[in-house]
Structure formats: structure tokens, C-alpha cells
Amino acid sequence: MEYPKRVLTIAGSAAGGSAGIQADLKTFQELDAYGMSIITAMVGRHPKTQKNVHLVGEEAIEAQFATAVHQVGVDGLKTGMLFTKETIELVAGLIASSEVETVVVDPVMIGKMNSKLLKEDAMEALKLKLIPLATIITPNVPEASQLLGGRTLTTVEDLKQAAVDLYQLGAKNILVKGGRLEGPAIDVLYDGQHVTTFKAPRINTIHTSGAGCTYSAAITAFLTKGLEVKEAVRFSKSFVTTAIEHGFSYTEVVGPTYHAAERKYGEAHKIIVNEG
Ligand code: PXL
After folding, report:
1. What angle do CA 37, 176, 208 make, to 5 degrees?
2. What is the pLDDT along the chain (276 residues), one digit of tens a residue?
3. Which atom of ligand 1 is nearest to the CA of 115?
4. DSSP state of 133
5. Distance 193 CA to ligand 1 centre (A)
6. Angle at 174 between CA 104 and CA 17, to 5 degrees
7. Which of 118, 213, 240 to mutate to test the pocket of ligand 1 (most atoms within 8 A of CB)?
């Protein structure tokens, strides 16, 4: 039997199950990858203190890394919410000292409910230590804007320029996701030579919690299976678009995307790919 590829997420636990580690593992499972996790922080609001982010210490992160990377072995990994400068530096050092080649960095900064997922003083470490190790980074519009010092991004042309400029940070591929602009959901990929756009229809829903986590987890799984970057992005955008289309909520607030949607309904969204 051929074993599934081993994929690792290094991210925050989202107690509600829609985002972070939980979204990543559900995505890995749907795409037949063997999911592993390193929890860097736990997100869950305490009813009395209102504290929302609970950190995991350095030793625990190192221990999880040793188990996943040195004991089981990792074919590809992604990073999500790392929250502090110290965690970013630790994780970047661990990745750099490993032989893992497929590294997807989702530069998570702000959640859908406006929760803060990265401390302000962590931005430099993200740019200087972690992003240069990446096969691909996957910022959304606010994240790309922050990485570019607060630049306003409103059109697809702006996203193309942003992708080209972010390439200077040292990642091999830049995917700027345009889901937060108006009109169709157009994402822009720059690989150092060519700009490619990926277009999906806009889906009229508020239930998109964890969509970014799901997208980058899918990219990690597809890259680890050996797909070229463009193909991995195309398949992943299709997967996340179908998951968004079937998003739902158990509560009155923003709910999860439905990770099982593509499998359950046998649908895959057609993504329109254009060069230049
Ligand atoms: O969707 C961004 C995100 C990532 N990681 C964790 C989160 C969230 C959003 O809430 O909680 C742990």
C-alpha cells in the first residue's frame, strides 16, 4: 500500500472548529493527506476574563516539532497563526534546521471577527525570518497591505503589483487573495517571472470562517502530492470555493466553510486561469 503524504500544520487551535488547526486537519483529511499538527496557541474567549488567545510555551512547540518532523517525518507543512515574535522566530529556526522543502506560509494577522492573530511587534520577524523560507505565501488583501507598509489595494491591478513587490521578501511564490475586493473572487499568483490570475464567482454568504486556512491547507496537500504550484492553487481554489458555497452556521455569527462539500456533492468549481 502506498501511504498518504505526511502534512503538518503549525498553527493556532480554533476551539469553534472553523479555522486554524481544525480547518487544516479537516482539509488534509478530505484531500487524503496524513494530517499532523503543532499547536502554537489556543483561541477561545474566556467568559469572565474575555481573554481570547492562550499561548503555548517554547518547550511544548519544540516537543511537538520533534514528534512530527523527526519521529513521523513530514513531506510538507504550512504555518498559520503564530501570534508572537518569539514563536515566529522559534518556528522559523525549526523549519530552517529541518529538511522539509514544501513550506506554505499563511501570514495570518486578523480573523474574520476582527480578532487579532498577530502581535504588532511580530511583523518584522514574519518578514525577515519566516517568509524567506516559504515555497508560497498566501496573504489576503489586509495582510498584503500590512506587509507592504499599509498600501491601499483596491483593484486586481493593485494585487498584481503587490504580488510582484512582495516577491522581494524572498518567498518563491506569492499568492495575493482578492476575496475581500468586490466582484468575482480573483487571486493573483507571482512566481518571480509570470503573473497568473485565478477567478471564481463571488458567493453571497457570510459563512467563510477559516476559508483562508482551508485554502492554504489545500495548497499544502496538493504541493506535497507533487503538483506544480499553479495546479495546486487551481485545485485548492476550487476546493475552497465549493466549501464556501456550502458554508453554514450553528450560531448567529459567521460560520464555517463546509470541508466535505466537494466530496459530498461531487462538485468542483471551475476556476478560470489567465496568464498576465
Ligand atoms: O481564520 C484565521 C484564523 C487562523 N487561526 C486561528 C483562528 C483564526 C480565526 O479566528 O482562530 C487559530
Report:
1. 60
2. 899 999 999 999 999 999 999 999 999 999 999 999 999 999 999 999 999 999 999 999 999 999 999 999 999 999 999 999 999 999 999 999 999 999 999 999 987 767 789 998 999 999 999 999 999 999 999 999 999 999 999 999 999 999 999 999 999 999 999 998 999 999 999 999 999 999 999 999 999 999 999 999 999 999 999 999 999 999 999 999 999 999 999 998 899 999 999 999 988 888 999 998
3. 10
4. G
5. 32
6. 45
7. 213
Mutate which of 117, 118, 208, 240 for ligand 1 pocket (most atoms within 8 A of beta carbon): 117
Q: Give, for ligand 1, the residue of 27, 45, 79, 81 to mutate: max count of ligand atoms closer than 8 Å to Cβ.
A: 81
Amino acid at 140: N
The three-point CA angle 113-221-246 to 5° equals: 45
Phi then psi for residue 237, to 5 deg, are: -65, -35
Where along the chain do its domains lie? 6-275
Q: How far is the CA of 108 from the centre of ligand 1 (A)?
A: 7
Neighbours of 231 (CB within 10 A): 13
Sequence letter at residue 96? A
Domain 6-275 has CATH 3.40.50.2000: no
Calculate how far, in angstroms, residue 3's C-alpha sits from the geometric centre of ligand 1.
30
* pTM exceeds 0.85: yes
Q: Name which residue sits closest to atom 5 of ligand 1, judged by CA.
A: 20
